[in-house]
Amino acid sequence: MTTALVIGAGVAGPVLAMALQRAGIDAEMFEGQLTGADELGSFLTLQVNGMDALRAIGADGAVRGLGFPTRSMRFFSGTGKELGTMTMGEPLPDGTVSHLVRRADLYAALRDEAASRGASITYGKRLVDAVSSGGRVRATFDDGTAAEGDLLIGCDGIRSRVRSVIDPAAPRARYVPVLNIGGLVPDFPLDTPDDEFQMMFGRRCFFGWSATPDGGVAWFANPPRPDEPAPGELAAMTDGDWRSWLLDLLSVDRSPAARIVEAAPAPLSGWATHDVPTVPTWHRDRMIIIGDAAHATSPAAGQGASMALEDAVVLARCLRDVAGPDHADVARAFAVFERLRRERVEKVVAAGARGSGQKAAGPVARVFRDALMPIMLRRMSSRGGVSPEWLHRHHIDWDERVPAA
Ligand SMILES: Cc1cc2nc3c(=O)[nH]c(=O)nc-3n(C[C@H](O)[C@H](O)[C@H](O)COP(=O)(O)OP(=O)(O)OC[C@H]3O[C@@H](n4cnc5c(N)ncnc54)[C@H](O)[C@@H]3O)c2cc1C
């Protein structure tokens, strides 16, 4: 049986392992961390197109109970003026809508589902190098051990090691000029509709909040920061540093933001935002990268996890249908995968970068943005839907054959 070495067990890795299994390929997953839980990153949005990808391999049930539904985003300016509403995509035919989930819960659920289907995950294996020769790939890890397989797939995230093994000149992650911080405040009643994420383009800071079904509020803030923080700088900031900075930034706006930050449980701790706009080389020989390793978007797009899920399922279909007997022609399958995916994912990364730019707008750009956004959202609405159809209506049919040409 063909064996794939899957590097990284975040979002893409476990789903890829499940999809490969369905495609008749054995997957061995190697995760650099010692344990599964990744507590960094608070919430992320699992959008309908990501749910559709999971449904293609019958894994949507594993995440359905996580988090809570979010159907739309309502935007405000810092003066409290409503700028417009945007849906998070039409529900799938079975009624599934986008969900806001804790990043750590999503990781755990996907890993558990993959493990329950017999996928092998070995923790504490950080890939340091890989060599492809004679139709095989040999991966080496930082503990001195090695593994061999027929192909290697890098699902190792935004700072991918596989990306630089494939192309030593590959671009690195690019700093996006906003920071990220967020969390959950229990018992914080808000008079906002269920299923709605409200977002404010504040005068000094972008802020988002959503009432949770149990009476709390999920929130995030994107304080602008033009230059990339030095290593260790953010980690050295205390809860008090973050809280007083955020309260200062948010105190000039008309919104519940400052009250939410005041009530947020300690410790507050933020992180820098990065993306990876264009990676020229996704594959070489019998190695390929997918997910954030190939195309990381800033969180403004809310699509990082969903794109990784789509990638995983589409790649498995390409290997099943295009690589030929015994999956010998992986190069051809990789080329078809890239043709199917590159334009779409890079469009998402570009949209995410624009979104982050709007969040960090200066005083003049802010005036234009606040004037134009209602018109833009109204125009999208009059076309029958306010979410980009090309993004959310993406459907993967597992049984449909991928054409080789
Ligand atoms: C710190 C952080 C916070 C984030 N917060 C948010 C958020 O709040 N909202 C949002 O929408 N998106 C967020 N994202 C983005 C979102 O999580 C990603 O878009 C999505 O997880 C991409 O999935 P992936 O599988 O490609 O990469 P990841 O989910 O990042 O998974 C990569 C996995 O590979 C492992 N790994 C890395 N290097 C190696 C190696 N050399 N050897 C073996 N294993 C390795 C990592 O430990 C990790 O488990 C965040 C990302 C990061 C890194």
Question: What would you say this structure looks like, in words?
Answer:
Helix 6 (239-250) packs antiparallel against helix 7. The radius of gyration is 21 Å and the shape is globular. It is built from twelve helices and 19 strands. It has 405 residues and is of the alpha/beta class. It has helices spanning 12-22, 48-56, 61-64, 103-116, 161-166, 239-250, 257-263, 292-295, 304-322, 330-359, 363-382, 389-392, and strands spanning 3-7, 26-31, 43-46, 68-69, 72-77, 82-87, 99-102, 120-123, 127-133, 136-141, 146-149, 151-154, 174-185, 196-201, 206-211, 217-222, 271-275, 283-284, 287-289. The chain has one domain (3-173, 275-392): FAD/NAD(P)-binding domain (3-Layer(bba) Sandwich), CATH 3.50.50. Strands 6-5-14-15-16-13-17 form a seven-stranded mixed sheet. Flavin-adenine dinucleotide (FAD) is lined by residues 7-13, 30-33, 40-45, 103, 126-127, 155-158, 161, 271, 291-293, 299, 302, 304-305, 308.
